[in-house]
Each structure stands twice: as structure tokens, then as C-alpha cells.
Amino acid sequence: MMNRKSPINKHEPHPRFKDFIQCYWTLNCSDDDISTIYRTALDTGLDLIFNLSGPIECIVDDSSPVTIAGDFMIGSLARQIQIKPKWSISMFAVRFTPEGLYPFFSMPPVDLSDFCIELEEVWELSGFGLSKLIHGTNQTPERLIQTFEGFFERRMNDFRSHSLRIEMAVTIIRSYKGEVPVETLANRLQISRRHLERKFTERIGVPPKQLCRIFRFKNALIHLKSAECDWASFAVANGYFDQAHFIHEFKFVTGHTPVSYLTGKPS
Predict the structure, then answer these.
(1) Residue 3 — pLDDT band, cuts 50, 70, 90?
(2) Paired sense of beta strands 47-51 and 72-74, if any
(3) 36 has which bridge partners?
(4) How high is the pLDDT of residue 1?
(5) What are residue 94's phi and psi, to 5 degrees?
(6) CA-to-CA distance for 165 and 65, rounded, in angstroms?
(7) pLDDT at residue 77 is higher than 80
(8) Which of 246, 252, 253 has its CA nearest to residue 230?
(9) If 0-12 CB within 10 Å is exposed, 13-18 middle and 19+ buried, where does residue 131 land?
(10) Which of 68, 88, 4, 86 is nearest to 38 (CA)?
(11) Distance, first Cα to last Cα, the chain
(12) pLDDT digits (tens, 9 = 90+) for 202-216
């Protein structure tokens, strides 16, 4: 969610990338107001931000301000990003889904959970010349998206050539909305549970059980607004043991009870 004063626009990815990319967003302004980007529990994915203008001051949640001159990433657990331009500002950003990084680069997103890091510090991305590619293209949203998706598709094809089983595992988890035991997943792929967990940690950054948990919660959150007051039935229908299990998980992820989340009132 973006604040009303910010000239921020969201753009949808091509349908073939929707499982990996939540959205793109662009920000353009010429004043010194702080533009604030708010993220909900459904936005728990890393933001890759290309700074197409001058240095900016960035504040992630309650952290200290950081001055950034180049491109950077915001961790997957960040809830609020404040961006203050030194002068005019132009940005293009990619917001990945929680599992969307795995064809892109192998640095575990848990290492970037709620932090801000400059792209040049991530050798795997800086070495492939992505920043040069983006900065060198026509900077209309359509052209920026086309350029990034061309790069992403090449990376995805390279990944599939040696990590097909991980992609198959994510596809299975997604199709079951997270409600699949890890042992069952390993058996379907004909590999050991330990090998599966190691590959997930290397390529996705979280073990398969955690990814199942993310998918299950996202599915429950999507159906939350249409839920009635029978939380016990809702919990069971969405893969939780009981009402207490669902509420505990909900508070862990969002910091709110389901009711306070829906009403916007304090817990």
C-alpha cells in the first residue's frame, strides 16, 4: 500500500512471472518530501530497487537513516520504507514473492529479512551486469519491465537446467497451498528429506516447512475478508489445527489478531 502523497505507481508482471514477482513499482518526484511505502503481510517479499537518479536517504521501519547512491534491496520482512530524495528522484523496483528469488540468485533472503543493502555488495547480481542493463535502457515503465523480465527469464532458464527438483517442489507446495508434509514432498521427488531441506536453504533461503507455512498463511489471508465469525471452522478449513493455532500464527506474522487486522483497531 502506498501513501496518497507519493507519486508511486504499481505495475503487474507478465502472467508467466506472477509466481515469482508480486509487482513492479515506479516512483518519480522532484521535491524533498519523504515518500513512504507501506507493506502488508501479503507483501512479504524482497524489493529490488533501481535508483535511476541521485542519492537518497532510506529508512526501513525504525532503523537509522542510510544514504544510498546506487541500486539497493529491502528485506522481505520490512513493513515500512521511507525514501527522502536529496533532489529529484526516479526509481524502478521489483517486488518478489516470498519464493520468487530462487531462480534469480542464491543469497538466502533470510539474510536480508528487514535490512537495506546496496546491490553492489551482492556479488552474484552485480557480476551479471543487471544494474548496467536497467540504467542503460529507455526509462519508461514498459521498457524497464521488458528489460528486467528478459534478464529474469534467462536466469530462470539457467536455474532450471540444474535445479529442476527445487522448482518441482515449489510447484507442489503452491498447488497444495502449503498443506503438504515435507516427508511426502521428499518422497514425491524421490530424494531424502535432508537433501531437500539443504537444497531449499541454499536456493530459496528457507526450509520447505517454512515455505509451506508462508503459502498456508497467504492463502488464509486472501480468504480472511470473506470469513465469518466462526474462526474455529475457518482455521481448520485453511489448514490449521484449531482456532488457537491460527490466531497464534496470525499474531506472529502480522502482530495483530484477525479481528484487529480487519477492523484496523488495536489488539
Answers:
(1) very low
(2) antiparallel
(3) 82
(4) 41
(5) -115, 125
(6) 41
(7) no
(8) 246
(9) middle
(10) 4
(11) 21
(12) 777 678 888 888 888
- Cell digits for 212? 509451506
What are the angstrom distances between the C-alpha of 194 and each of 163, 197, 207? 16, 5, 10
Query: Among residues 78, 110, 129, 96, which one has the least CA distance to residue 203?
Result: 110
Cell numbers 541500486 correspond to 71
The residue type at 64: S
Instruction: Tell me the CA distances in angstroms from 235 to 44, 59, 211, 217, 242, one per residue in order.
Output: 21, 36, 19, 10, 6
Q: What is the 3-state secondary structure (H, E, C) of the chain?
A: CECCCCCEEEECCCHHHCCCEEEEEEEEECCCCCEEEECCHHHCCCEEEEECCCCEEEEECCCCCEEECCCEEECCCCCEEEEEECCCEEEEEEEECCCCCCCCCCCCHHHHCCCEEEHHHCHHHHCCCHHHHHHCCCCCHHHHHHHHHHHHHHHHHHHHCCCHHHHHHHHHHHHCCCCCCHHHHHHHHCCCHHHHHHHHHHHCCCCHHHHHHHHHHHHHHHCHHHCCCCHHHHHHHCCCCCHHHHHHHHHHHHCCCHHHHHHCCCC
Grid coordinates given for 194 = 535432508
- Tallying the residues shown for the chain, one arrives at 267
For residue 118, give the C-alpha cell: 546496496
pLDDT band for 145, please (50, 70, 90 cuts). Answer: very high
Q: In terms of DSSP bridges, do strands 21-29 and 8-11 run parallel, antiparallel, or are they unpaired? A: antiparallel
**What pLDDT sits at residue 125?**
65
Q: What is the CA radius of gyration of the chain?
A: 19
Task: Measure the CA angle with vertex 55, ends 54 and 58; round to 5°.
Answer: 135
